[in-house]
Design a protein that fits this description.
Elements (H helix, E strand, L loop, with lengths): L5 E4 L1 E3 L2 E3 L10 H13 L12 E4 L5 E7 L8 E3 L5 E2 L9 E5 L3 E7 L4 E6 L14 E5 L6 E2 L2 E11 L2 E2 L3 H4 L3 E8 L13 E6 L14 E7 L5 E10 L4 E12 L3 E6 L8 E7 L10 E7 L5 E6 L7 E5 L5 E12 L5 E13 L9 H79 L1
Parallel strand pairs: 1-5, 12-19
Antiparallel strand pairs: 2-3, 4-10, 5-9, 6-7, 6-10, 8-9, 11-13, 13-14, 13-17, 13-26, 15-16, 15-18, 18-19, 20-21, 21-24, 22-23, 22-25, 25-26
Length: 442
């Protein structure tokens, strides 16, 4: 068997440490399996020379991975080599060692480890168990084919060590299992060139759709909010030291065979209509059940349920409460034509209700509007006449005032002219009289 990399998990209990070492190709596969299972099931302290928190690595070990679970919040471990030198999480030969530390555990992978007794110094968790990992893989239940856009489905899977399910709860906490849908880039499908979409994460924590925590069964809840087309279901298993990818498929995602449209009301006192249509080539129309929730622009929320629909298209009334954006969440349950039960969820369906134009006026209203308009026109004409009369009177007053001013100015000018003329004559007469008197005296 090719170089077998083992994973060592250390257990500390009553000041005793347990270790499991790897096996090389000198052992047959059957021998390796028997020795590994004997270590797991038997008294480990009788299988390896262990004292305190020390363990021994034989000279035939080519590579080994150590996983130490520590008490929460404790400092990373210190590894003490057989020659007495120490390795720390921040100081070790990088060409030989890969070290990952977490608040709760350390994972250390060593190439060509020095044979002899090793020691681990630190607050190691007493609840750890020893386990040999020869081939970690993840297997999930097969996906239905085809799937439907917006479909939600529960899928279970298990983490395997060789042929055995991994049951070490603490080890499962170091593994992340994500599911991506990656387009096959088949030009015959609508998802050609689409970006990968993360559709689920597998967990074994007893939450959500996972039934029991720590039972070794991982549960993923898929939400296929992806473009219809051909996809590869890609399971990514990530540990602190490596990542593995398992691909399944291809699988086809068909458009959801239930279509929704909205007919908006044109009158304020009438409801909107949510129209539901089904594709009977994919699903049994009599099996369709829909739970909906409408969030109105005024903050109100109303729910509705549709079931046992006899004919399609089917209309659901949505109250016309306010103008603006309406959000409708839809849960669809149906049975495909081949008998598969499925459910889907649409949580981004929306429409915007605009205020309708005012209704056309009646004959009486039009007559009243015409009467009001006529009176308005008459009033405008009257105001215009009064304005003209006032303007004419103002113009007349201005003309009279101007004429009076002009006449006054003319009279003043005439008076001034005569006054000046008379004064000049008087001055001349006075001058001549004065001259005559002077001449007589002589």
């Amino acid at each position: 068997m090719a170089r077998l990399i083992a994973l060592l998990l250390v257990l500390v209990s009553s000041s005793k440490a347990y270790a499991v070492q790897s096996f090389t190709d000198v052992d047959s596969e059957e021998q390796v399996k028997k020795r590994a299972m004997s270590l797991i099931e038997g008294d480990i302290t009788n299988k390896l020379p262990i004292k305190g928190q020390s363990f021994r690595i034989d000279e035939n070990v080519e590579e080994i991975t150590l996983l130490f679970f520590r008490e929460p919040g404790s400092k990373p471990l210190v590894l003490i080599k057989p020659d007495g030198s120490k390795w720390y999480d921040a100081r070790y030969p990088e060409e030989q060692v890969t070290w990952y530390t977490d608040p709760n555990f350390d994972i250390i992978r060593i190439k060509e480890p020095q044979p002899g007794p090793w020691q681990a110094a630190g607050r190691i968790d007493e609840e750890n168990k020893a386990l040999v990992i020869s081939d970690i893989r993840f297997e999930a239940n097969p996906l239905p084919n085809p799937l439907f856009q917006y479909e939600e489905l529960k899928v279970e899977g298990k983490l395997y060590n060789g042929d055995e399910v991994v049951e070490t709860a603490r080890f499962r906490q170091t593994v992340l299992l994500d599911v991506l849908f990656i387009s096959t880039n088949n030009p015959d499908f609508d998802n050609f060139g689409a970006n990968p979409a993360r559709v689920a994460q597998f967990e074994d924590n007893g939450r959500g759709h996972d039934e029991r925590a720590g039972d070794g069964v991982f549960t993923g809840f898929f939400n296929l909010d992806v473009e219809p087309g051909e996809w590869l279901a890609t399971y990514e298993m990530t540990t602190p030291l490596y990542q593995r990818v398992f691909e399944f498929g291809p699988v086809e995602v068909e458009p959801l065979p239930v279509e929704f449209n909205v007919i908006q009301s044109e009158a304020v006192d009438e409801n909107h209509q949510l129209t539901i249509q089904v594709d009977e080539n994919w699903i049994d129309p009599q099996s369709v059940v829909i739970n909906g929730e409408t969030s109105f622009p005024n903050g109100e929320v109303r729910k509705f349920t549709v079931s046992e629909i006899e004919t399609f298209p089917h209309n659901v009334a949505i109250a016309n409460l306010a103008f603006g954006k309406h959000l409708v969440d839809l849960d669809i349950f149906a049975t495909s034509v081949d008998g598969r039960e499925f459910e889907a969820r649409i949580d981004d369906f929306s429409f915007i209700a605009k205020e309708p134009p005012p209704p056309e006026p009646t004959a009486a209203e039009r007559a009243q509007q015409q009467k009001i308009e006529l009176e308005r026109q008459r009033e405008l004409a009257r105001q215009e006449r009064e304005a003209k009369q006032k303007q004419a009177m103002t113009n007349l007053i201005i003309i009279v005032v101007v004429n009076i001013v002009l006449i006054g100015l003319a009279l003043f000018a005439l008076w001034w002219f005569k006054f000046r003329k008379k004064k000049v004559a008087t001055d001349v007469a006075s001058s001549e009289s004065l001259k005559s008197e002077k001449s007589g005296k002589k």
